[in-house]
Every structure is written in C-alpha cells, then in structure tokens.
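User: Hey, quick favor. My workstation is busy. Could you predict this chain's structure for me?
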Amino acid sequence: MVVYADTSFLFSLYASDINSDAANAQIRPLNRPLLYTSLQNLELRNALRLACFRGEISKAQSYELLTLIDGDKEKGVLVEAQVIWRDVYDLAEELSARYSDLTGNRSLDILHVSIALTLQAEHFWTFDQRQHKLAELSGMEVNKLS
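Assistant: No problem, here it is.
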C-alpha cells in the first residue's frame, strides 16, 4: 500500500491539533513509510513555524518538531520521493480543468493530489474536505475525515 499524506494530515501527526487523534489512529496500523516530497517538506516546516508565529506552539516546540521530522526522514519513516514536476503540473492542469468548478480546490490542493497520482499512491490521507473530494474523484482511496 503506497500512502500519500498531505500537509494537513502531516501537521496533525506531528503537532497537536483537533485531528491529531485521528491521524495517529490512521498511521498506527501502517507498517511502511510515508511518501515525502519537497513540497510537503516546505509546507509542513512552514506550517510549524506559522504555528509558532501565531502563538499556538512555542519556539522550542517548533524546533523539537522540526528535529523530529528530520529524524523520521533519516530513519525512513518519511521516504523522500522525487517527482517530475513537468508531469505533476500537466496532470494538475488536467485535474483543475476537470474538477475545480465542482470541488473549489486551490492550486496547492491540486498539486498534492497530482503528486500522489504521479507517484502512484493508492491511498491519500488528508483532513482538507475539498482535497479529500478531489482525491476521491481521482480514484484514490481516502481516509475518513474526522
């Protein structure tokens, strides 16, 4: 089973928020690594820094979580996946043309689904309702939203 988790899911997995219990329950039975791209890396790390800026976590907590992510990359919990960006963008445009007027997805939402599809992920985990719908319409199995 190849799983792609978007940033909303990863944030809930690493930081504590309303979806953390659901994220941990979803990940527990998975005994394989999660795909991890440069886009996820940027978005997750920035989301943690923004949480610090907003006063939701301390600078020390942010640093600890960033270090934990680096450790999970080193241990193979998060496996860096290389994408061919031209293919991702081409598919993203196709998904946008086909579904955006129905789902209302933002460009980054579409990019995540497009990346998952180009990496041949079978499962897409997210807490974003619009992205969830797009992944479902694109033929991937999606997690239950909490």
